[in-house]
Amino acid sequence: MAIPIETWYYDVPIVTRLFATGAALVALAVQTGFTNAFQLYFNYQLVFYQHQYWRPITTFLYFGPLGLDFVFHMFFLVRYSRMLEEGSFYGRTMDYAWMLFLSAISLLCLSPFVAMPFLGSPLAFTLVYIWSRRNPSIPLNFLGLFVFTAPYLPWVLLGFTLLLNSHFPTGDLMGIAVGHIYYFFEDVWPKEQASGGRRYLQTP
């Protein structure tokens, strides 16, 4: 029996739901001509000198025009964001929102060095990396070709992107780097004796 779309929608945890809804609304606004991609990308000069303060937000919400590629990105985003929010962040909505905020700030700081105007895909890759490291024993099947455990997922996706596209997957690597920094300081470093149990990235 099919689940009504509104039931599925409200079953999605709040942060993931708001993220996906924002992305869908931005794509719809571009599709209908209400705005265009040139008004959405991140640019330091436009933000700080022309006071276009929406750009640090819309850069994470635009995944391209409505179409098959957009649907793929939304599936990818909602799947891993939801599994994180319902998994290791269960009952900790503010912690999950804080993790997304820190990841977004990190990607904004990196973006001028790689000339990447839209950062939604790298942020989604950050979520994939964190989820994969926190679920090391889960087996995954890629296109029915081979089975591997979750920690290899980001690298499998990275290799697949490299095969399909002629350009180097800089955004994917940015997502992996930011995800690894968060994972290290939240999951690895506090367990080290030298850390004294301190968590530098904990929610204020």
Report what the structure shows.
The protein has 204 residues and is mainly α. The protein has one domain: Rhomboid-like fold, CATH 1.20.1540. It contains nine helices and two strands; from the N terminus they run H-H-H-H-H-H-H-E-E-H-H. The protein has helices at 5-11, 14-31, 44-48, 55-58, 68-86, 93-114, 120-134, 153-164, 170-188; strands at residues 139-142, 146-149. Strands 1-2 form a two-stranded antiparallel sheet. The chain starts with a helix and ends in a 16-residue tail after the last helix. It is a multi-pass membrane protein. The chain crosses the membrane at residues 18-38, 59-78, 98-131, 143-164. Belongs to the derlin family. May be involved in the degradation of misfolded endoplasmic reticulum (ER) luminal proteins. Its main location: endoplasmic reticulum.
Task: Summarize this structure briefly.
By secondary structure, the chain is mainly alpha-helical. It has a single domain (5-195), classed as Up-down Bundle (Rhomboid-like fold), CATH 1.20.1540. The chain has 9 helices and 2 strands; from the N terminus they run αααααααββαα.
